[in-house]
Amino acid sequence: MNAKKKFTSTWLLWPALFMLVAFFLIPTLDILRASVYDPEFTTKHFAKLLGSNVYLDVLWRTIRLSVIVALICAVIAYPISYFIVQRPRKQQIFFLFLVFIPLWMSVLIRSYAWMVVLGREGMINALLIGLGFTDEPVKMLFTTGAVYVAMVQILLPIQIVTCYSAMTEIDLDLMRAARILGAKPWQAIRRVFLPLSLDGTVTGAIIVFMLSMGFFITPALVGGRKDIMMANLIEFQVQQLNWGFAAAISIVLLIGTVLCVIIIKRLSKILIRRLVGGGHA
Amino acid sequence: MTKLLKQFAKVAVATLVVAGSANLALAADKEITFSGSGGVVGKVSKEVWWGPYTEATGTKINHVAAEAKRMPQLEAMVKSGNVLWDAMEVSASDYPLGVKKGLFEAIDYSLVDPDNQLPADTREEFGVAYAAYSQVLIVRTDKLPDGKKMESWADFWDVENFPGPRALRGRAEDNLEFALLADGVPAEDIYKVLSTEEGLDRAFAKLDEIKPHITTWWTSGAQSVQLLSDGEVYFCPSYNGRITTLVSSGIPAEIVWNGGAMHKSYIAIPKGTEHLKEATEYVKFRTTSADRMREYVTHLPYPGWAPGLFDGMDPKMAANMPTFPANQKVQFSASAEFWAENLDAIQERWTEWLLQ
Amino acid sequence: MIERDVEFGASVTFDGVSKTYGAVKALSDFNLSIQRGEFVTLLGPSGSGKTTALNVLAGFVDATEGDVRVNKNSILGLPPERRNIGMVFQNYSLFPHMNVFENVAFPLRLRKVAQDEVKRRVGESLAMVQLNDFGDRMPNQLSGGQRQRVAFARAIVFEPSVLLMDEPLGALDLKLREAMQLEIKRYHKQLGCTILFVTHDQGEALALSDRIAVMGEGRIVQIDTPDRIYDEPNSKYVADFIGTTNIVDFERGPSSIIRFPALNAEFELQENDKSWGQGQNSISLRPEKLHRDISPSDHVIIFDASVEEYLFLGNIIQYSVRTTTGKTLLFQEHRGPSVPILARGESLKLAFSINDARPLDEGTHGSGHT
Ligand SMILES: Nc1ncnc2c1ncn2[C@@H]1O[C@H](COP(=O)(O)OP(=O)(O)OP(=O)(O)O)[C@@H](O)[C@H]1O
Ligand SMILES: [Mg+2]
C-alpha cells in the first residue's frame, strides 16, 4: 500500500522532471559541450576569453549594472507592493493590473519610448528648456543613468509582483500585534513586516538580477559607449557564427550569475538576522 | 493472402502513376533551385525576378530560403556529389571562402556578359556581383552651420567647423576605413594600411580623436534612422537605403557619397549542378536585365550594374543608388576578405577601445 | 510561580460608541463600564460587533461617535502603541521569525528595558504559562495550546492596564479549551488585571466572567453576572442565546388572567406583580425548572404532556415532551434511585412555579440594565 503510494507520487513528478531536463539541462549541457568541443576537445575558447581583459571587464560591468538595477528595483518596488497589499482586495487587483500593463509592450518598444522621453529633443528636455531651466539640452540619453532608468522601468513589474505575492502571505494582524505591543508604525514595519517580506524581496531581486544579466537591447539603445553587456558580446559572436566562443562566453556568464546569486542569498540571510536580532536598544 | 496481394498491387500501380506524372512534369518545365534570402527580399524577388524569368525562359525557380550556415551546407553537398542548389546568393565575405574550397563553377562570361558590359570589378571568376549596399555618411542638412557643406570623413572628424552630436556604428567594420580616409589615406590604400600593425594603430588613434564627440554607437540600421530623425545626432553613417525613410518623413537629410563603404553581394553556381545551362542563364538574367533591376530598386535599395540601369530612371532616385557611376566613383569597395580574416581580433580590440 | 503585588488593572468606559462601515452599523450606541480588575466578557453571535468594540479600545479602528476612557482619561487620540493595552489574538499572531523568547521580549525591547531586566521579566512570564524551557523554540515548533500561552505571556509581560482577548481559545479543541479556561482564570486571579474577553461560546462566558455582556446588532442587550444572565434573561434573544430554554407564548385574558394556550393552562397575576409588563408575550422556562412532583398552589402551573424522546446527559436526563396541543418542550431532572426513568409515550403531569418563569421582551433591543 505504502509502496504503491510512493510510486504514484514519484510518477506524477516525471513530466515536470522531463520538461526540466529537456528544456533546461540538455540545452545547458549542449552549450557547455559547444564551448569545449570545436569539433575536437579544446580549451582555446576559454583560454582566449580569460587571456583578454575585455571579456572579464564586460562581465564585471554586467554584474555591477545588474546588481544596481536589482537594488533600485527592490527599493522602489517595496513601498509600492506594501501600498498595494494594504488596499482592499478589489483595489489590489486594479493596482496589479496597472503594474502589469507595461509588460504587454515589448522591451524594444519600451526602450525606444525612453529614447523619446530622454532625448536631446525629447519630452524632458523640451520641458526643461520650455520652463527656462536650461538653454542647452541636458544629456540624459546614451548615459549609464538612462540604462538604469529604462531597465528599472522594464523590470520593476516583475519585482513588484514577486514582492507583492510574498507580502500577501504575511498576516496583517501581526502588524496590529506589533502596534499594540508598543511599536510605532515604522518600528512595526522594520521589525515585523520587513524581515518577513525580505525573503520575497530578495527572490524578486534575484530574478531581476538574472534577467538583467542577459539584457542587451536596452543598454545598446539608451546606454553610453561603455554600457556593453556580456549578451552583446555573445550576440556578436553568434552573428559571426563563432558558436564555440559564443558558448564559452555564455558559460562564463552563467557561472558569474550563479556565483552572484549565491552571494546575494548569503548576504540577505545575514541582513535578515541583523533585522530580527538587531536593535536590542 | 490473395486479398493482401491485390492491395499491394493497387498501391504499386498508384505509386507508378504518381511517379510517372511527376517525371513528365519535370520533362515539360525545367526547374532550378535557388538558395537566396528569405523575408522581404525573397518576396520581392519572386515578383520582380523569378516570375518574369520563368515567363521568358520556361524555367521555374524553386526558392530555398537561405539559412545562416550556408557555406558548411554547400561544402557538404559538393563533397557528397549531391548538389541540390543550382544557383545561390553569396555574401562578400563568403565568396573568397567558397573560391578557396572550390565550391563554385567558373562563370562563363561568354554567355553571361558576351559584350563585356558589366564593370570589371563585378566580374569575378566564380561569381558575379549582382547587388550592392553602402554604408554612407548621412547629414541633417538643417543642422549644418550656415553655408557649409559636409563632404568627407575629414569633415565628420572636424568638430570645430561642424559642431553637433554624431554617431557611429558600434562595430569595427567600415569605421576603421572611415578613420583612415579622414586621416588622409587614399581610398585605394586603405586595406594595405590596415593590414599593418601601425596602420591599425593609426586608425584607432584617429578614432580616439572623434570618440568623445560620438553621442552613441548604434547597433541597428533602424536605430540610426531614429537618431537622425529625432535630432539626437546630426551626422551619422548609415545604410544608403535608409535615406528614403528619412526624406519621406520630411527630415532634411542628405547622403555624402564621398568615402562611402560599398558592400557587394555575389551570385554563384554551386560546383556540380545538373542544370549548369539554366543556372548560367539565370545569372545572366539577374545581373543584366536593366528593366527588372529598375523595378526591383523601387522596392528595395539594392541595385546592381545592369547595363542601362540608369537610362530612364528618375534622376532623383538614381542619385540615391550606390552603383550610380557618380556615386560609385567616390566610394571605396569594402573588403570582405580583409574582415573575414581580421574581424575577430580587431573586434576584440574595438570593444576594449570602447570601454576605455 | 510568582504572585504580583502590583495590580495593573485600570477601569474602562465605553461611552455611547458607534462605528459604521457604510450602511453597516458594527457598533451603535455601545455603553460599557468595566471596573478595575474586572473580567468582562462580550458574548454574541458572529457579526454582533464584539471585535469592533475591542478594536476601538485597542486603537485599530476609529469610533464614528462616542468616547472611550481608561481610568477616566479619553484614549481616542492615542495611537495603539501608546495605549498600554495587552491583546491576545484569535490566531495568536506570534511573530513567526522570532523565537518564543524574542516574541515575549518584543514589547519590552520597544520600551527600551535593560537586557537583564528583559531576561528576568520574560522568564517570569514564561514561567507563569509554564513554558520556561521553550524560549529557543520557533512558533511553528509549538502546539496550539503552547502558542496560545506564548501569546498570553507576550500580552502581559509589559503589565498593560487592560488585557483584551478576542476568542483566544477559538482554535483549540474542547479539552484543551477547558484546560486553558482554568488557566486564564488563574492568571486573572494572580495578576488582578482588567480583562475584556470576547467569545461566542456561552459556556466559556459563564465559566470565566465576572460579568457577561450579551451583544446583538452592535449593542449590549443585557449585561449582568453569569448567574443572573442565566436565570433572568431580559429578552427572548438572551434567553435563547444562553443555555437551553423553552419559550412559551402567553396572552392576557380579562382582568389579570395570563393564559398559556400551548399548555392549556392559565393563572391570575397578583396585584403587586409588575414583572409581567406590557409588550411581553412569552416566557423563558429553563428545562430544569419543570418538575413532576409538585403540589398545586397559586404559583404553580400544571399541564399534561407525554414523553417523546429522552437523552442521557450523565447524571442528568433530558426529556423532550409533547403537550396536549402538540408543543414540544424540554424537561430535565437529576437521576436518582427514587427517580424512575420515564418510557417513550408515557403520559405525565408537569408543573412549574410562575416565579421560575421569566417574561421576555421581544427582539434584541433589551433595556440593557447594568
Ligand atoms: N472593515 C470592515 N469593513 C466593513 N464592515 C466591517 C468591517 N469590520 C467589521 N465589519 C462589519 O461590522 C460588523 C461587526 O463585525 P465584528 O467583526 O465586530 O463582529 P464580531 O462580533 O467580532 O463577529 P465574529 O464573532 O464573527 O468575530 C459585521 O457586520 C461586519 O461585517
Ligand atoms: Mg470577531
Q: Can you tell me about this structure?
A:
- Helices cover 79% and strands 0% of the residues of chain A.
- By secondary structure, chain A is mostly helical.
- Chain A has one domain: Orthogonal Bundle (MetI-like fold).
- The longest helix of chain A is centred in the first third of the chain and has 35 residues.
- In chain B, strands 1, 2, 3, 4, 7, 8 and 9 form a seven-stranded mixed sheet that branches. A two-stranded parallel ribbon of chain B has the order 5-6.
- About 5% of the residues of chain B have low confidence.
- The longest helix of chain B is centred in the N-terminal third of the chain and has 27 residues.
- The termini of chain B are far apart.
- Chain C has 370 residues and is α+β, with helices and mostly antiparallel strands.
- In chain C, a hairpin with a 2-residue loop joins strand 9 and strand 10.
- Chain C is elongated and about 75 Å long.
- The relative contact order of chain C is 0.13.
- The N terminus and C terminus of chain C are likely disordered.
- At the A-B interface, helix 3, helix 5 and helix 11 of A face strand 6 and helix 16 of B.
- The complex binds adenosine-5'-triphosphate and magnesium ion.
- The site of adenosine-5'-triphosphate (ATP) has 12 residues of chain C, from strand 2 and helix 1.
